[in-house]
UniProtKB/TrEMBL annotation:
Signal peptide: none
InterPro entries on file: CheY-like_superfamily, EvgA-like, Sig_transdc_resp-reg_C-effctor, Sig_transdc_resp-reg_receiver, Tscrpt_reg_LuxR_C
Residues of the Response regulatory domain: 1-67
HTH luxR-type domain boundaries: 90-155
Residue numbers carrying 4-aspartylphosphate: D2
Domain of life: Bacteria
Pfam families: GerE, Response_reg
Taxonomic source organism: Rhodopseudomonas palustris
SMART domains attached to this UniProt entry: HTH_LUXR
Protein name: LuxR family transcriptional regulator
GO molecular function, one term: DNA binding
GO biological process: phosphorelay signal transduction system; regulation of DNA-templated transcription
Keywords carried by this UniProt record: DNA-binding, Phosphoprotein
Length: 167
Protein backbone atom coordinates (compact mmCIF):
# COMPACT_ATOMS: atom_id res chain seq x y z
CA UNK A 1 0.00 0.00 0.00
CA UNK A 2 1.32 3.40 -0.98
CA UNK A 3 0.31 6.08 1.54
CA UNK A 4 -0.42 8.43 -1.37
CA UNK A 5 -2.27 5.88 -3.52
CA UNK A 6 -5.27 7.29 -5.43
CA UNK A 7 -8.61 5.90 -4.31
CA UNK A 8 -7.57 4.91 -0.81
CA UNK A 9 -5.21 7.40 0.69
CA UNK A 10 -2.81 7.08 3.57
CA UNK A 11 -3.59 5.82 7.02
CA UNK A 12 -7.32 5.90 6.34
CA UNK A 13 -6.72 3.43 3.52
CA UNK A 14 -4.59 1.24 5.76
CA UNK A 15 -7.21 1.26 8.53
CA UNK A 16 -9.91 0.46 5.99
CA UNK A 17 -7.93 -2.42 4.44
CA UNK A 18 -7.07 -3.92 7.83
CA UNK A 19 -10.71 -3.75 8.96
CA UNK A 20 -12.02 -5.17 5.68
CA UNK A 21 -9.35 -7.87 5.21
CA UNK A 22 -7.78 -8.61 8.61
CA UNK A 23 -6.09 -11.85 7.52
CA UNK A 24 -4.19 -10.31 4.59
CA UNK A 25 -0.81 -8.81 5.52
CA UNK A 26 -0.16 -5.28 4.26
CA UNK A 27 3.25 -3.78 3.47
CA UNK A 28 3.40 0.01 3.30
CA UNK A 29 5.68 1.51 0.65
CA UNK A 30 6.23 5.23 1.14
CA UNK A 31 8.50 8.15 0.33
CA UNK A 32 7.92 9.31 3.92
CA UNK A 33 10.28 7.19 5.98
CA UNK A 34 10.42 9.08 9.27
CA UNK A 35 10.08 7.08 12.48
CA UNK A 36 6.60 8.43 13.28
CA UNK A 37 5.20 7.44 9.87
CA UNK A 38 6.67 3.95 10.26
CA UNK A 39 5.33 3.66 13.82
CA UNK A 40 1.84 4.78 12.76
CA UNK A 41 1.84 2.35 9.84
CA UNK A 42 2.64 -0.55 12.15
CA UNK A 43 0.18 0.68 14.80
CA UNK A 44 -2.57 0.73 12.17
CA UNK A 45 -1.84 -2.88 11.22
CA UNK A 46 0.86 -2.88 8.55
CA UNK A 47 3.10 -5.94 8.66
CA UNK A 48 5.98 -4.12 7.04
CA UNK A 49 7.26 -0.74 5.91
CA UNK A 50 9.58 -0.20 2.95
CA UNK A 51 10.84 3.29 2.08
CA UNK A 52 10.68 4.07 -1.64
CA UNK A 53 14.39 4.88 -1.52
CA UNK A 54 15.06 1.15 -1.12
CA UNK A 55 15.46 -0.92 -4.25
CA UNK A 56 13.41 -3.78 -5.60
CA UNK A 57 15.67 -6.29 -3.84
CA UNK A 58 14.78 -4.91 -0.37
CA UNK A 59 11.10 -4.74 -1.32
CA UNK A 60 11.22 -8.41 -2.31
CA UNK A 61 12.98 -9.28 0.94
CA UNK A 62 10.34 -7.41 2.94
CA UNK A 63 7.47 -9.14 1.15
CA UNK A 64 9.00 -12.58 1.69
CA UNK A 65 9.55 -11.88 5.39
CA UNK A 66 5.99 -10.62 5.81
CA UNK A 67 4.58 -13.65 3.98
CA UNK A 68 6.58 -15.80 6.43
CA UNK A 69 4.71 -14.09 9.27
CA UNK A 70 7.40 -11.60 10.29
CA UNK A 71 7.23 -7.83 10.56
CA UNK A 72 9.73 -5.97 8.37
CA UNK A 73 11.02 -2.44 8.89
CA UNK A 74 14.24 -0.85 7.63
CA UNK A 75 17.20 -2.14 9.64
CA UNK A 76 18.34 1.41 10.47
CA UNK A 77 15.03 2.36 12.14
CA UNK A 78 14.74 2.33 15.94
CA UNK A 79 11.16 2.21 17.23
CA UNK A 80 12.14 1.74 20.88
CA UNK A 81 11.37 5.35 21.88
CA UNK A 82 7.99 5.70 23.55
CA UNK A 83 5.12 6.93 21.40
CA UNK A 84 3.08 9.99 22.38
CA UNK A 85 0.39 8.71 24.83
CA UNK A 86 -2.34 10.96 23.40
CA UNK A 87 -1.61 9.72 19.88
CA UNK A 88 -1.62 6.12 21.12
CA UNK A 89 -5.07 6.59 22.68
CA UNK A 90 -6.41 8.12 19.46
CA UNK A 91 -4.92 5.30 17.38
CA UNK A 92 -6.49 2.74 19.70
CA UNK A 93 -9.88 4.38 19.17
CA UNK A 94 -9.55 4.73 15.39
CA UNK A 95 -8.79 1.05 14.89
CA UNK A 96 -12.13 0.14 16.51
CA UNK A 97 -14.03 1.68 13.59
CA UNK A 98 -15.67 -0.67 11.10
CA UNK A 99 -14.72 -0.38 7.40
CA UNK A 100 -17.94 1.53 6.69
CA UNK A 101 -17.33 3.88 9.62
CA UNK A 102 -13.83 4.58 8.29
CA UNK A 103 -15.32 5.45 4.91
CA UNK A 104 -17.86 7.75 6.55
CA UNK A 105 -15.14 9.46 8.60
CA UNK A 106 -13.07 9.94 5.43
CA UNK A 107 -16.06 11.60 3.79
CA UNK A 108 -16.71 13.75 6.86
CA UNK A 109 -13.08 14.86 6.57
CA UNK A 110 -13.86 16.03 3.04
CA UNK A 111 -16.71 18.17 4.39
CA UNK A 112 -19.57 16.10 2.96
CA UNK A 113 -23.02 16.27 4.54
CA UNK A 114 -24.89 13.16 5.74
CA UNK A 115 -27.17 13.36 2.70
CA UNK A 116 -24.18 13.46 0.32
CA UNK A 117 -22.45 10.58 2.10
CA UNK A 118 -25.65 8.52 1.98
CA UNK A 119 -25.96 9.13 -1.76
CA UNK A 120 -22.30 8.24 -2.42
CA UNK A 121 -22.52 5.01 -0.39
CA UNK A 122 -25.99 4.05 -1.60
CA UNK A 123 -27.55 3.91 1.86
CA UNK A 124 -30.16 5.92 3.74
CA UNK A 125 -29.39 9.13 5.57
CA UNK A 126 -30.55 7.39 8.78
CA UNK A 127 -27.82 4.78 8.28
CA UNK A 128 -25.21 7.53 7.96
CA UNK A 129 -26.54 9.23 11.11
CA UNK A 130 -26.13 5.91 12.94
CA UNK A 131 -22.56 5.58 11.63
CA UNK A 132 -21.74 9.15 12.67
CA UNK A 133 -23.13 8.50 16.17
CA UNK A 134 -21.05 5.33 16.46
CA UNK A 135 -17.93 7.17 15.23
CA UNK A 136 -18.43 9.92 17.82
CA UNK A 137 -18.88 7.36 20.58
CA UNK A 138 -15.87 5.26 19.56
CA UNK A 139 -13.61 8.32 19.24
CA UNK A 140 -14.88 9.77 22.52
CA UNK A 141 -15.89 13.09 20.96
CA UNK A 142 -19.12 15.09 20.88
CA UNK A 143 -19.27 16.51 17.36
CA UNK A 144 -18.46 15.77 13.74
CA UNK A 145 -15.89 18.56 13.82
CA UNK A 146 -14.12 17.00 16.81
CA UNK A 147 -14.08 13.63 15.02
CA UNK A 148 -12.46 15.19 11.94
CA UNK A 149 -9.93 17.04 14.13
CA UNK A 150 -9.08 13.80 15.97
CA UNK A 151 -8.56 11.97 12.68
CA UNK A 152 -6.40 14.82 11.36
CA UNK A 153 -4.28 14.83 14.55
CA UNK A 154 -3.45 11.18 14.27
CA UNK A 155 -2.81 11.09 10.58
CA UNK A 156 -1.41 14.46 9.66
CA UNK A 157 -1.73 14.82 5.90
CA UNK A 158 -2.17 11.06 5.41
CA UNK A 159 -5.86 10.91 6.36
CA UNK A 160 -7.86 12.73 3.72
CA UNK A 161 -8.57 10.99 0.47
CA UNK A 162 -7.82 12.56 -2.89
CA UNK A 163 -10.36 10.55 -4.84
CA UNK A 164 -13.47 8.50 -3.98
CA UNK A 165 -12.90 5.17 -2.26
CA UNK A 166 -12.76 2.26 -4.69
CA UNK A 167 -15.53 -0.28 -4.17
Amino acid sequence: LDLKMPGISGFSGLIYLRAQYPAIPVVVVSASDDVETIRRSLDFGASGFVPKRFGVEKLGEAILRVLDGDVWIPPDVDLSAAADPEMSRLRDRLVTLTPQQVRVLMMLSEGLLNKQIAYELGVSEATIKAHVSAILQKLGVESRTQAVIAAAKISGNHWRQDEPVAQ
